Amino acid sequence: MFVVFTPSPIAVCDIGTVKVAILDDYQNVALSMADWSPVAARAEITVFNDHLAEPDAVVERLAPFDVVCVMRERTPLSRSIIERLPRLRMIASTGPFNASIDVAAAKERGIHISGTGGYIESTVELTWALILAAARRIVDEASSVRAGGWQMSVGRQLGGAVLGVLGLGRIGSRVARVGAAFGMDVIAWSTNLTPDAAQAAGATYVGKDELFSRADVLTIHLVLSERTRGLVGAAELGLMKPTALLVNTSRGPIVDEVALIEALRSHRLAGAGLDVFDIEPLPAEHPLRTLNTVVATPHIGYVADLVYRTFYGEAASKIARWLDDVAAG
Question: Which of 74, 168, 326, 329 has minimal CB crowding within 10 Å?
Fold first, then answer.
């Protein structure tokens, strides 16, 4: 569940024993992905490989720690949690921004917050892995071979099909270019998208309803906000072709999950490739785990070697720098 590294008393006598928590290290790789020795020389590091969702449990776990290193939005640090952690002095977040941290609450308490760089390529790649897996029934076919069987289905060719991109920003524009390379007809829409910006990314700008009604594959690349929460609801799913696929590697709440499950169960939608969900980790009995038209992955869009090395490497460096500043007074 966790690993503790304790420094020598001499190394930390100037500022007291600082305790650092690394949260949600599911693969137990945080300490091997970066050089933590400058931190370990002056602080006690505890690595947690499990996940806690209940706020009281999170507070109880984090109460002894001065520094908390969070992996993206896996453990939200809300105002109610931050205000119950009087010892907390630094939050080291991975990634350039983290919407699940109440920055205002942290600043009010004088808590230092740091971020890191990152990459978008891994999410683009996973988007296409899900699209291809859903279109060609890769999981079912691979499982058939493993079980001693052979061909089970007729796959969907993507060349000549319509790729609908909901959100044509840094990730969506790269996804669009790959679609064009496959010979797909790429269309796009988002609230602030213009025809010129769409054309620059190799896509054709269309209206929202046309995006949903024309797409053979609809892929979502929006930032979660109050404006985008529930943007893809029953009405939008109802516009889609019964042969269409929906892919979401952005954030779960952009799609009305109940409406999506109903569309999949009633075969008003052919299938989905999902890396993100309303509740993460996905509950054990959740229907999206068992629907045979869903290819589901456990939010691994950013879980790749170069990304993790950047995340943990820069987080460790910034924690070490903060320790220097504290020691210097």
Answer: 329
